[in-house]
Amino acid sequence: MKDPVKFTYTLTAPGTASGSVELNGQKAEFVVSNAGNPLADLLRGMVSLIFEPSHIWDEENIQLIDWYGNEKSYKWAFSTDDGETIRIKIIEYTDLFDSSTAITKLNGACPMLSFYYGIITELDRFIKDTGLLNYEQQWQKEEFPLTYFLILKKHLVERGLWDKEYKSSGILNNEMDILFL
User: Domains of the chain by range and CATH?
Assistant: First the structure.
């Protein structure tokens, strides 16, 4: 799948990660700390847009996520009106308690599945390179949000967007198979 979304995520020091999000020529870079759980919050929000489709009832379907770093914080806002297109906005704050420090780093829209594919393919690479146990040791706070990751990866597999073939063999085996696709 050709993807307009590029996402990077790397553990850079104990309890610190850095990365970027690129969308339609815009790029937002970030450095986050384990003061929060950025990956779990991001993936939980993405799952919510799928399984709590409030746009069907003409309600706003929006997720707001806060990521915290040692020097800056970031507010992610993503929403969908139709379950097909996602609007993404990332705002950087140098002072979380002073909204005048807000700088919009990314503001755009793309197909929802393209956004999901961009995030999940990077996290798939990241967790295979880092390992689940190593992630927890390096992040020093929370485990990798494996459940949300698997839900989203399965969502992509079921829509035929994943590169490798998926074969069902039982509940636990299915979950482990999805992890290693």
Answer: 5-179 (3.30.2450)
